[in-house]
Amino acid sequence: MSPKARIVVIDDEVNAATALETLLKEDGYEVASAHDAHSGLALIEQNDADVVLTDLRMPGMDGLQLLTKLKQARPQTMVILMTAYGTVKNAVRAMKNGAEDYLSKPLDVEELEVVVERAIEKKRLIEETRQLRERVAEKYKFENMLGESPAMLHAFKTIRQVAPSSASVLLLGESGTGKELFAQALHQAGPRRTRPFVKVACAALPETLLESELFGHEKGAFTGATNSRAGRFETADGGTLFLDEIGDISPTVQVKLLRFLEEREFERVGGNRTFKVDVRIVCATHRDLPKMIADGAFREDLFYRLNVIEIRIPPIRERLSDVPLLAHHFLREFAKRNGKEVRDLSDDAMALLLSQPWPGNVRQLENVIERAVVLAEEAVLTPTHFPTLRQTLEVSEASRSVKVAIPGSSLASIEREAILRTLESIGGSTSQAAKILGVSPRKIQYKLKEYQRGTGAVVARPRAKKA
Ligand SMILES: Nc1ncnc2c1ncn2[C@@H]1O[C@H](COP(=O)(O)OP(=O)(O)OP(=O)(O)O)[C@@H](O)[C@H]1O
Ligand SMILES: [Mg+2]
């Protein structure tokens, strides 16, 4: 019995309520009582009750009405109904409406104690399960992003930390690593989520067009400007402006952007009205900005303004432990979207996925799985469903540079690395890998399953140093 559980007793018969209160207090509970449903509801809220014992027949709001109200407002509170007029019909209705149990008056003390204890225990279990589920969901999923590698969990944490502020964020990552998804997550997880998220693909527009796209223009600013027009900065007021491919903007636009970041104001092209807006800037690039600065192609002062917080999204080859999670996620998604019965990946297929260099990162993985699912006629994907992937491999240059740190890694991580890298070097044959490693093929298969389920040790990779 948990002595601290809080109980509220509601009965219009004052003596009955008092007797019950005394009895339950002696059992070690925190108890309060009320004599009508309305004050009972207030008491439940005030005490944050775990369990409510309520009479069924009461003047005004009766026990069933109270039950309905309570289950809407506080579904976590357990309700036990008591009645002297106990009929099967009432009991059934009460249980259907979410009552935990039913006691008939006069109360049998022993039965009462058992029923109350059971309700408390059940509530505790529900609460525990919910917390556990939340923790798991929180760990591997953030907004629409999945990841369980240390690098991604670290990135999720950073996003949670910086989302509430308005500080500029620079997202660095190769093509297809999820920069746009991160930018959206930053917006969604922060107080600006109800305001616009505006994306500008900077590389897609020539210099003059980009300038007017961002800052707007006044009538007559250039040939063809027959009307004045607001730019994206104005559209994004109160929200987030995502400048994709920031490394591709011209010196003129760089100057204007710098001014905005310093003074939070700008003029439209061809105008002298000054606009002030409240916009959070999130930028992304796959370019090496420090190198561009050294080459004189990007302003250093702008770089520091944009780079208040830098988030580097590692390429897939530096976080292979995310591959099983992502692959299964995409498999389920595309199977559902295409009405296919594809359920799983064979161990060989997973080994093949784990052996690829993935230059196109998550986007490439997503496309490869989509193609396989769409064309598959079997329920389980095998290496033959991935004809575009390299089936036999020399160890890729990229993966060769990724190693577990010794000392510094757990034995499980080292084992995992040994298995995955051996598989990789021989093109995914589990029997051959077993021979090389001197273990049974069953052990390799078992381990691969474990990694797929995500229960295996996560490979601790040294984080790449920032430039
Ligand atoms: N962690 C992740 N979990 C689930 N899906 C992801 C994840 N990362 C990326 N994706 C998916 O991969 C695809 C590419 O992501 P996104 O467009 O954000 O990448 P990017 O870095 O902006 O690419 P590019 O450099 O080509 O612009 C998208 O379909 C996205 O939904
Ligand atoms: Mg992008």
> Which range best describes the helical content: under 10%, 10-25%, 25-40%, 40-55%, 55-70% or over 70%?
40-55%
Radius of gyration: 31 Å
What is the CATH superfamily of the largest domain? P-loop containing nucleotide triphosphate hydrolases
The SS-based structural class is alpha/beta
Q: Could you describe the largest sheet, including whether it forms a barrel?
A: 5 strands, parallel
Q: Tell me the name of the CATH class of the largest domain.
A: Alpha Beta
Q: Tell me the overall shape.
A: flat
Residue stretches low in confidence (pLDDT < 50, at least 5 long) are 393-402, 455-467
Tally of helical runs: 19
Strand content: 5-15%
Distance between the termini: 58 Å
If you had to describe this structure to a student in words, what would you say it looks like?
The chain has 3 domains: 6-135, Response regulator (Rossmann fold, 3-Layer(aba) Sandwich); 146-314, P-loop containing nucleotide triphosphate hydrolases (Rossmann fold, 3-Layer(aba) Sandwich); 318-453, Helicase, Ruva Protein, domain 3, CATH 1.10.8.60. The longest helix is centred in the N-terminal third of the chain and has 32 residues, at 109-140. It has 467 residues and is an alpha/beta fold. Strand 3, helix 3 (63-73) and strand 4 form a beta-alpha-beta unit. Mean pLDDT is 87; it is low at 393-402 and 455-467. Helix 10 (251-263) crosses helix 12 (300-306) and helix 18 crosses helix 19. It has helices at residues 14-26, 37-47, 63-73, 88-96, 109-140, 150-162, 179-188, 207-215, 232-235, 251-263, 289-294, 300-306, 323-337, 347-354, 361-375, 397-400, 411-425, 430-437, 441-453; strands at 6-10, 30-34, 51-55, 78-83, 101-104, 141-142, 145-146, 169-172, 197-201, 240-244, 265-267, 274-276, 280-285, 309-312, 344-345, 380-381. The structure holds adenosine-5'-triphosphate and magnesium ion. Adenosine-5'-triphosphate binds at residues 145-147, 173, 175-181, 286, 326, 362-363, 366.
